[in-house]
């Protein structure tokens, strides 16, 4: 799943300042998303 892949990104070794990844998403149907993706934090 997407969340598993995103969690695995930080486990690939040390991350330097230039190796950051930002994921931005938008939807007009938030209830269609998995509850895990809608949680704060």
UniProtKB/TrEMBL annotation:
Protein family membership: Belongs to the AAA ATPase family.
Q: Which residues form the signal peptide?
A: none
Enumerate the UniProt keywords alphabetically: ATP-binding, Nucleotide-binding
Give GO terms for biological process.
nucleosome assembly; nucleosome disassembly; transcription initiation-coupled chromatin remodeling
Domain of life (superkingdom): Eukaryota
Q: What is this protein called?
A: 4351_t:CDS:1
Nucleotide-binding keyword on record: yes
> Which GO terms of the molecular function aspect are on file?
ATP binding; ATP hydrolysis activity; chromatin binding; histone binding
- PANTHER family in the record: AAA DOMAIN-CONTAINING, P-LOOP CONTAINING NUCLEOSIDE TRIPHOSPHATE HYDROLASES SUPERFAMILY PROTEIN
Q: Which residues form the ATPase AAA-type core domain?
A: 1-39
GO annotation, cellular component aspect: nucleus
Q: What is the lineage of its organism?
A: Eukaryota, Fungi, Fungi incertae sedis, Mucoromycota, Glomeromycotina
InterPro entries given in the database record: ATAD2-like, ATPase_AAA_core, P-loop_NTPase
Q: Give the stretches traversing the membrane.
A: none
List the source organism.
Answer: Racocetra fulgida
